[in-house]
Each structure stands twice: as structure tokens, then as C-alpha cells.
């Protein structure tokens, strides 16, 4: 009979492995194991629950090298690996509604003059206050001879903003119009700058005539006042003052007359 060779059992193999480890190696393995346990306990103390308010299910695996590994639950692992895909949004075309400034020719999206007076001028060019001046309603009437109907009724009505009077806040609010728009409206009403000048001349002549009439009226009133002061005022009844006597041979009568026109006739015996 052949002699059977005995095979070492698993316990004998583990004992042989333990025998091969030195005391220093065993101490290092124990320290690693204790450190792994402390780390695990600290993580559980910081996050005792998962985001779903449930205790995290983990399994600890002894590696045999002095530390432990934590295996996450398979369902949680699958949820982490799941990729969330969102539908793609619509493609946005490039902006084509950019405006071009009438002064500098550059593109812009919005400006104060555009919002207030619907004028395609950027905020940089707006700083030219001489070209883009704002005028009050009184200046509009005096300079361009425009009436309220020309500003508010004629199509399109001119836009304006309301501001407090800088001279005195207690005075009425001011209406500020955009100067170039007022000029265009004046040219529309009067036809040209020559027509506007002619209207100014006619208004000036009318004002001169009106002033002349007022002056003549005051002079006349003054003359009447001087004349009335020279007239003798008598509040009593009128007394006739007769002049020299005259004789009429045909009627053989005498007569005297008063300045008021009264004539007295009489005969002498």
C-alpha cells in the first residue's frame, strides 16, 4: 500500500502564518486595526443618517492586514452610478435686435434717450448736451412759436418728461421736450427756417402795434385828465352871464345873450 501524505489543515496553515509574524509585526497589525475602528466610529458619529433619513447600511470586511474596508450597499452603489440626463434646451440664436447709434454708428441694446424719447442714440453720445438738449414748454412756444395743439394733438404727439422747477420747487412742474424733435415739428408747422423767421417778424410787428395802441390810449387818457382839471366845476344851478346889449330897429327891441346860448329880448319905454 502506498503511504498517504497528510495535508495540513486550514488551522495549521493559519498557525504557521502566525508563527512567521514577529512581535513587532503583530503590534503594527493591531494598531492598524484599532485605528480603522476609530475612523469608522468617527464617520458614523458625524453622519449617522443618509440623505434619505435612513441609517446607512454598510458591511465591514477584515482585510487581514490590520485594517477594515467598508462595503456600501449594492442598491446605494447603483444609485450613485446612475447618471442623470437632462433634455437639451433649445438653441438660442445670436441677438439680432441690436440698435445702431445715429451719432457714432456703434451697436447698443438700450439707452436713456431710447427709453424716454424713442431716439436711437446711445448713452455715451447723449452726453453731448448741446446736440441732444432738452427744452421747456415755454422755450418751445417762444423760440419755435408752437402751440399746445402742435405738441399734443398733431400726430405723433411729442414725448416729454416732468421735472421739478430748479429755480423754485414750489412753482409748477416743468415739461421737458427733446430739442431735435421740437425742431422737426417746427419745420413741419412753418415749412422752413425762413417761414419760422417770418412768423417771428409778424409776431414782433403785432406786439409793436399792440404796444403803440396801449401807449396812445394812455396818452389820450392823460390829456382828458388834464383838460378836466382846467374846467371850472360848479355844483350849483347855472347863472347866465350876458354880454353887451344889441338893438334891433325892425322890431324896436333890445337883446342880450349868454355864453350858454340863452338870449334875452326886451323893450324899453
TrEMBL record:
Residues 195-207 have a biased composition (Basic and acidic residues). GO terms for molecular function: damaged DNA binding; zinc ion binding. Keywords: DNA damage, DNA repair, DNA-binding, Metal-binding, Nucleus, Zinc, Zinc-finger. Residues 1-27, 194-214, 234-255 are annotated as: Disordered. It comes from the Eukaryota. Residues 131-182 form the XPA C-terminal domain. Its main location: nucleus. Pfam families: XPA_C, XPA_N. Gene3D superfamilies: XPA C-terminal domain. CDD domains: DBD_XPA. It is found in: Nucleus. The keyword Metal-binding applies. Residues 1-12 have a biased composition (Polar residues). One of its GO terms (biological process) is nucleotide-excision repair involved in interstrand cross-link repair. GO terms for cellular component: nucleotide-excision repair factor 1 complex. Belongs to the XPA family. This is XPA C-terminal domain-containing protein. It comes from Magallana gigas.
Amino acid at each position: 500500500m502506498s503511504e498517504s501524505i497528510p495535508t495540513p489543515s486550514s488551522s495549521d496553515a493559519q498557525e504557521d502564518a502566525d508563527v512567521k509574524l514577529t512581535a513587532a509585526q503583530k503590534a503594527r497589525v493591531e494598531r492598524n486595526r484599532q485605528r480603522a475602528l476609530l475612523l469608522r466610529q468617527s464617520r458614523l458619529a458625524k453622519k449617522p443618517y443618509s440623505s434619505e433619513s435612513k441609517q446607512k447600511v454598510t458591511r465591514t470586511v477584515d482585510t487581514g492586514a490590520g485594517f477594515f474596508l467598508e462595503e456600501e450597499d449594492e442598491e446605494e452603489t447603483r444609485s450613485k452610478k446612475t447618471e442623470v440626463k437632462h433634455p437639451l434646451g433649445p438653441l438660442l440664436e445670436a441677438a439680432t435686435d441690436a440698435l445702431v447709434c445715429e451719432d457714432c454708428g456703434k451697436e447698443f441694446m438700450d439707452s436713456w434717450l431710447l427709453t424716454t424719447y424713442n431716439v436711437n442714440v446711445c448713452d455715451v453720445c447723449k452726453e453731448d448736451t448741446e446736440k441732444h438738449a432738452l427744452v421747456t414748454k415755454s422755450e418751445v412756444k417762444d423760440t419755435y412759436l408752437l402751440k399746445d395743439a402742435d405738441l399734443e394733438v398733431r400726430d405723433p404727439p411729442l414725448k416729454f418728461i416732468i421735472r421739478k422747477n430748479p429755480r423754485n420747487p414750489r412753482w409748477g412742474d416743468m415739461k421737458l421736450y427733446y430739442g431735435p424733435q421740437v425742431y422737426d415739428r417746427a419745420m413741419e408747422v412753418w415749412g422752413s427756417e425762413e417761414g419760422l423767421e417770418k412768423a417771428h417778424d409778424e409776431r414782433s410787428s403785432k406786439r409793436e402795434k399792440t404796444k403803440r395802441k396801449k401807449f396812445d390810449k394812455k396818452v389820450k387818457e392823460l390829456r382828458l385828465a388834464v383838460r378836466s382839471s382846467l374846467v371850472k366845476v360848479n355844483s350849483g344851478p347855472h347863472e347866465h352871464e350876458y354880454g353887451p346889449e344889441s338893438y334891433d330897429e325892425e322890431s324896436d327891441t333890445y337883446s342880450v345873450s349868454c355864453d350858454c346860448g340863452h338870449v334875452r329880448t326886451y323893450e324899453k319905454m
